[in-house]
Amino acid sequence: MKLQPFTIATLRLALDEGWRLAAATRRASMLYALIFMVAGMLIVGALLVNGLAPFVFAAAGAFMLLGPVFFAGFHGIAAAHEAGQAATFATVLAGFRRADPALWVLALVCALLFIIFITDAAVLYSYMIGGAPVWLGEMPANPGAVGRFLLWSGVSGLIVGFMVYTVSAFAVPLLCERRCPLVGAVAASVHAVFTNFIPAMLWAVLLAVVIVGSCLVLPLLPLTLPWLAYTGRSLYRRMLPG
Questions:
Q1: DSSP for residue 146
Q2: Structural domain boundaries of the chain?
Q3: Could you tell me what percentage of the chain is helix, strand and coil, using 3-state DSSP and rounding each to the nearest 5?
Q4: Helix extents (H) in the chain
Q5: Distance of alpha carbon 130 from alpha carbon 59, whole angstroms
Q6: Is the distance from CB of 19 to CB of 233 less than 8 angstroms?
Q7: Considering Cα of 228, then 230, then 234, then 237, what sign does the dihedral take?
Q8: How many degrees, rounded to 5, is the angle at CA 85 between CA 21 and CA 242?
Q9: pLDDT for 178-188, tens place per residue?
Q10: Is 134 strand, coil or helix?
Q11: % of the chain exceeding 70 in pLDDT
């Protein structure tokens, strides 16, 4: 596979293309994204009810670690749209069925890193904030402990998130299209990220900011998640054309 240059202009074109595809497949894309919005509402609600308000930010960041696995569903919607077929929820399942089984191996790696991050964040929370309930309205009253938790859990999330992004950003779409086996897909993804480090990190920061922000304001997620998924697909096709 020949790697094409990744520039800021490439990212801008991919963002435009991703938005157009999200608009063209709005019904199926938003219905699929609604699953994650509902799951997020349940998780955030449980944390707030149990007085774990500061942990909501860590939970929002943790979604970034599992997000790449769900790309296959959006890939199925996009493939159906390109083939002139109606994009339905069945096309979401078709995206997972058509993907290389090695995608599930990569999913297990992402899940393992997710568990590591959540465990680390829980330890930090226990050490820095303790077991007393912290309600949402009380967070400004204890800025020192909450601030330290957010800082260090953010550092931990940044490290783990960088690993997940590097190995999965281009490996997942490669596996969805069965263009190479797992090792080759991961190697191509790592090579693409480090060869185009600055624009790749800009894309990573944009992903993190928009997704974490959308997880904190959950009604935004059905709009932003498809857009970012299709943008990632456009970037992949521009950088690693078939």
A1: H
A2: 8-239
A3: 85, 0, 15
A4: 8-24, 26-49, 55-66, 71-82, 89-98, 102-128, 143-168, 171-176, 182-195, 197-216, 221-239
A5: 17
A6: no
A7: positive
A8: 60
A9: 999 999 999 99
A10: strand
A11: 99
